[in-house]
């Protein structure tokens, strides 16, 4: 059974220290920066929190405790990946097999980090251009109204909206929820990925261009080489926030709404739908079907395959 994280630790990681509040007036829930704090967060992670790393990695609430939360310190240069790697290896030497395995999974993410930064160094144009150029043919009509709903967390999909509200206040979201936000913007709202990069980049306390643009395009399906992932917000909500703890925390309007209603919000009008929250702005099933049809056609096209060869040559064989 998953352990529900204690509020005290969440607040520590989200930096609710009274003594810092004066300085952090504008962002009282941000992690505290600096090398000293980064080292403390690291020690606490490898000594305690790492034991639930894998089981919690996709869960919006539990990941806040059991993921390392080192990304801002790495992005701002408070800690170096080399230092983190070496001390993790040292900790592994005195850990049991289960913990070693958890730390290996953490280390694999650290490798991804450098791998993506290397890709960005080789092709910095991907900040503005499709990674796989064949997707230049995929043109989506911009809809400022939908973009605004997404940016403000008012899409009518509870988990999507809770994620955006949480991100705006704390500057942090786990990987799966970031991926879901991008998937939602590009596949469900059918907006060009370039419309969303600045907004999330501004919100992330750990903004790292080398990771950000590549990951954004992975989730938007414009990389071409990888298996396409589309995240259904209803499914994510049931699997990763089954008791709606995260959703209710960031959308208190759902406090009295029964949990099954929250997970199905807007699917069917219901007697219990008492929360003062918007209903879904678009039909999810239709939107996902369109996205699947279009992307699968693209994936099979000769142009995408040709570009995949170029990408492989540059980033894998080159
Ligand atoms: C659309 C999108 C945008 C993203 N933008 C950023 C960004 O600007 N800056 C950023 O640091 N991460 C970004 N990520 C990757 C990932 O979500 C965060 O690194 C991670 O959630 C940070 O939490 P953590 O430190 O607790 O991670 P842990 O799981 O503890 O991982 C340890 C470290 O490995 C690196 N890492 C973890 N996951 C990934 C990944 N999927 N790809 C590359 N490196 C990874 C990070 O440096 C992280 O601190 C993005 C992901 C997506 C889907």
What's a concise summary of this model?
With 318 residues, the chain is mainly alpha-helical. It is 58% helix and 0% strand. The chain has two domains: 7-122, Alpha Horseshoe (Serine Threonine Protein Phosphatase 5, Tetratricopeptide repeat); 126-317, DNA Cyclobutane Dipyrimidine Photolyase, subunit A, domain 3 (Orthogonal Bundle), CATH 1.10.579.10.
Layout: helices, strands, pairs:
Elements: H1 7-13, H2 18-21, H3 35-47, H4 53-56, H5 63-66, H6 71-75, H7 81-93, H8 97-122, H9 144-152, H10 158-170, H11 175-188, H12 197-203, H13 209-220, H14 233-240, H15 245-250, H16 259-263, H17 284-300, H18 302-317
Helix pairs in contact: 7-8, 8-13, 11-13
Flavin-adenine dinucleotide is lined by residues 67-71, 74-75, 106, 109-110, 112-113, 116, 174-175, 178-179, 182, 204, 206-208, 211-212, 215-216, 219.
Structure in words:
- This protein has 318 residues and is mainly alpha-helical.
- It folds into 2 domains: 7-122, Serine Threonine Protein Phosphatase 5, Tetratricopeptide repeat; 126-317, DNA Cyclobutane Dipyrimidine Photolyase, subunit A, domain 3 (Orthogonal Bundle).
- The protein has 18 helices and no strands.
- Helix 7 runs antiparallel to helix 8 and helix 11 packs across helix 13.
- It is globular and about 55 Å long.
- The relative contact order is 0.11.
- The structure holds flavin-adenine dinucleotide (FAD).
- Flavin-adenine dinucleotide is lined by residues 67-71, 74-75, 106, 109-110, 112-113, 116, 174-175, 178-179, 182, 204, 206-208, 211-212, 215-216, 219.
- The site of flavin-adenine dinucleotide has 27 residues, from helix 6, helix 8, helix 11 and helix 13.
- It holds the Pfam family FAD_binding_7.
């Amino acid at each position: 059974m998953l352990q529900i994280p204690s509020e005290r630790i969440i607040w520590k990681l989200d930096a609710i220290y009274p003594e810092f509040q004066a300085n952090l007036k504008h962002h009282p829930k941000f992690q505290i920066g600096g090398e000293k704090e980064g080292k403390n967060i690291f020690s606490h992670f490898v000594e305690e929190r790492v034991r639930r790393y894998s089981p919690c990695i996709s869960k919006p609430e539990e990941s806040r405790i059991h993921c390392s939360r080192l990304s801002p310190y790495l992005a701002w240069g408070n800690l170096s990946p080399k230092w983190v790697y070496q001390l993790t290896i040292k900790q592994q030497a005195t850990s049991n097999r289960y913990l070693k395995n958890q730390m290996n999974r953490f280390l694999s993410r650290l490798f991804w980090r450098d791998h993506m930064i290397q890709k960005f160094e080789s092709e910095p144009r991907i900040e503005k251009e499709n990674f796989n150029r064949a997707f230049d043919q995929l043109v989506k009509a911009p809809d400022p109204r939908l973009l605004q709903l997404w940016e403000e967390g008012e899409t009518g999909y509870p988990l999507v909206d809770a994620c955006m509200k949480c991100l705006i206040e704390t500057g942090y979201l786990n990987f799966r929820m970031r991926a879901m936000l991008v998937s939602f913007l590009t596949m469900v709202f059918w907006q060009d990925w370039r419309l969303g990069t600045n907004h999330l980049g501004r919100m992330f306390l750990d903004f790292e261009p080398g990771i950000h643009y590549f990951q954004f395009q992975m989730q938007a399906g414009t990389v071409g080489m990888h298996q396409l992932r589309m995240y259904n917000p209803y499914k994510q909500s049931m699997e990763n926030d089954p008791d709606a703890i995260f959703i209710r925390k960031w959308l208190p309007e759902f406090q009295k709404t029964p949990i099954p209603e929250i997970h199905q919000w807007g699917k069917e009008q219901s007697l219990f739908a008492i929360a003062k929250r918007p209903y879904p702005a678009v039909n999810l099933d239709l939107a996902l079907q369109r996205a699947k049809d279009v992307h699968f056609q693209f994936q099979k096209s000769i142009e995408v395959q040709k570009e995949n060869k170029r990408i492989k040559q540059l980033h894998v064989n080159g």
